[in-house]
# Entry
Amino acid sequence: MKQSDIVEILIVEDNPNDAEMALRALKKNNLRNNVLIVSDGEEALDFIFKKINILIMNTTIIQKLFY
# Structure
């Protein structure tokens, strides 16, 4: 896989415990993507506008996938 094919994952979560739980769930499933955790929408938008290939997951999606 080329570096340009790797999708970065952005976790937007204001609760550090929930952010860590999401990160552990991703690692548990052997995802080797670059993961960035930000705590609010402003930081998230700053990141999104700088990137093209991203996957956005929120807590609801993560709970449905891993629980």
Residues 12 and 43 are 8 Å apart (CA to CA). Strands lie at 8-12, 35-38, 54-57.
